[in-house]
Structures are given as structure tokens and as C-alpha cells.
Amino acid sequence: MAKSQQTFGKKEKEKKRLQKRKEKQQKLEERKANPKSSSLDDMIAYVDEFGNISTTPPDPTKKREKIDAESIEISIPKKEDVEEDPIKKGRVDFFDSSKGFGFIIEQDTKERFFVHVNGLLEEIVEGNLVSFELEQGLKGLNAVRVKKI
């Protein structure tokens, strides 16, 4: 005599599958019994004067002044031309003559700039007051045309 091929686990899975099917059928019948209107008016949303989304159209009496679309700028504001002295002054913070590089701290902004021996017009040592110009390097601004004051 052979054993039944139906195990407890298989029976439970079948029960769950049937239960899900019944629930799905009930939901379908509920939707058919209570149909939602899917007209365009139900789908439209409005924005009130405070920027909140609402279902009611805005009141035309509360309408604000008209904004000219041409006057709206959607970009980074243009930089005004400010004449800036290209020659800056600073103090040599660190300089290693054996490796040929160092750093200069600008007097006004206290920013630190890299300087290479190729950008020197005169020999410098730590603590010297110098004048220099800035150029864009590979990793940021570099001090060039450096000379003692």
C-alpha cells in the first residue's frame, strides 16, 4: 500500500493560494460595486497662493500681480567686473629649497598657495615678505612670479 503524495506542507500552500484567490475576487467585486469616477476633473490638482496642492481651483480675486516671464533668470548670476589687483602680498610659510616647493600665506585673505621653484624670480626663505601673482595649476591656484618685497 502506497503513502499519500499530499504532504502537510503542500496542503498548507494550496490553502494559502485559494485564500489569496478568494481575497482577490472579493476586491474585484468591491471595485465593480463602487466604481470611482476617473474623469479629468478628479485628476486635476491646483496650487494655491502659498504653494500648497489643493483640489479646489484658485480664487481669481486673490490673484497677485502679473509676472513677466522674460524677467525671470534661470542661471547663475553674472559676476560683475570688479577690478582686482593681480599682484598679491604674503609671507612665505614654508619653503624646502632641496625639493623646490613651498607655501605662501596671503596677507589679506590668509589663504595658502603652493609655490614651485620655477615660479620664483628671486631666492626666498621661510618668513620672507613676498609679492606674487596667481595662476591656475593642476590642483588649484599656484603662486607665480614670486619676488621679495
UniProtKB/TrEMBL annotation:
Question: Locations of Basic residues compositional bias?
Answer: 13-24
In the record, which residues are listed under signal peptide? none
Residue spans of biased composition, Basic and acidic residues class: 60-69
Q: Which InterPro entries match?
A: CSD (IPR011129), CSP_DNA-bd (IPR002059), NA-bd_OB-fold (IPR012340)
Where does the CSD domain start and stop, copy by copy?
87-148
Q: Where is this region: Disordered?
A: 1-70
**What protein am I looking at?**
Cold shock domain-containing protein
| Native organism | Carboxylicivirga marina
